[in-house]
Every structure is written in structure tokens, then in C-alpha cells.
Structure prediction request, 219 residues.
Amino acid sequence: MIQEQESIVIKTVARLLVPFIQLFALYVIMHGHSSPGGGFQGGVILAASFILFAVAYGLDEMKRRFSIKALTVLTSVGVFLYAGIGLLCLLLGENFLDYGVLPVIEPRGMGMLGIEIGVGITVMAALISIFHDLLDFE
Amino acid sequence: MIWQLDLILLVFIVACAIGALVVKDLLGSVILLAAFSLLMCLLWIEMGAVDVAFTEASVGAGITTVFFVIAVFKTERRSKD
Prediction:
């Protein structure tokens, strides 16, 4: 359904907007523990930026830069990050996801940041996968 | 909470919801649903739930609209009933 557009306006606007949308998504993920937003919302905004790119430049160009295999791997990497941080706390002698024992500076903030990054990666990859599957239907 | 603002937003939300049900053109229905999500997001902010409003704005008005538009183009644009 989505082919490459002829319109130079759409292409230019998408090329100018996509980096700023991604920067805002990273900001939302990074400040998830102290302000509104978090891993889920940031991941959705990140996925929306890639979908905007696919709408403007065509699905084939999107597939060339961001393969389906990479999306599958990224979906698992996010879950692995989440469970890995939780299990690390378990190994260090506390409850699951009890960040206080992590051996880093300011363990609670850093543990929460790791969780948010994992959630963001998984949500982004899963939503782009749904987009691919909807378009490749039939 | 300002009840006048609440009332105006609620009237527009109900109008959008009924419009999305009544309209025969499914693409127009999808656009009305996006407007419903945006107004719902404003209502969440007005009630003080900023985090829920953020999720509503990004998921409801952003991603699901794209998915619904793809679904409409993959099936039919006119509704039968």
C-alpha cells in the first residue's frame, strides 16, 4: 500500500521532523521517573517517528534500514533488560526489582532508568512490527 | 477543576463519539475517533492526570489512528449497515 511518495514537501518535512521527534522520545524516556512520561510513552513516540519515516519514504526503504529480524531481536532485548535488572537485584540478596542494592552511583534512579530503557525498546520494536504485519497482510 | 471547561469538553466528546458511530464513511469515523482521543486527553489534563493524558495523546491520537487507517484501506471504506 505505501509506496515512495513523489511529493518533495512530504519528504522534506518528514526528514526535518523525524530527528526532533526521536530526541523528544529519548527525553521522555530519560525523565520518566521524575516527570510525566516513561518507557511506554517514549517507546510509542519513537515508534511513531519511524512510522512517519515509512509513510514518507516507502516501506521498502524502511525495511532496508531497519530489518524485521532486528525488530524481533530488539523486542527480546528489552524484555531481557527488564528481567535482567530484576534478577540482578535478586542475586544480590534483595527482592525482585529492589534497586537499592545495585553497585552503581545512585542505585534507585539508575535501576529505574534501566527498566524504562528496556520497556521503551520493547514497545518501539513491537509497535513497528505490528505496522509491518498490517501492511504485509495478504 | 473548572466545571464550565469540563462541560464544554464533555459536550464535544459526546458529539465526537456519536459522530464516529453514525458516519457511513469509515475513514471519517477514524478521524472522529482521533478527535475523540485528543479531547479525552484535554479532559484528563484538566482533571490532573497528566500521565494518563500523555499516554492517551501518544497512543490514542497517534498510533491507533495510523493502524485504523491501514485497516480501512485494507478492507472497505463504506460501511454496510
User: Anything to note?
Assistant: Helices of chain B lie at 3-22, 26-46, 50-74. Residues 50-74 of chain B form the longest helix (25 residues). Chain B touches chain A at residues 50-51, 53-55, 58-59, 62-63, 66-67, 70-71, 73-74 (CB under 8 Å). Residues 20 and 28 of chain B are 8 Å apart (CA to CA).
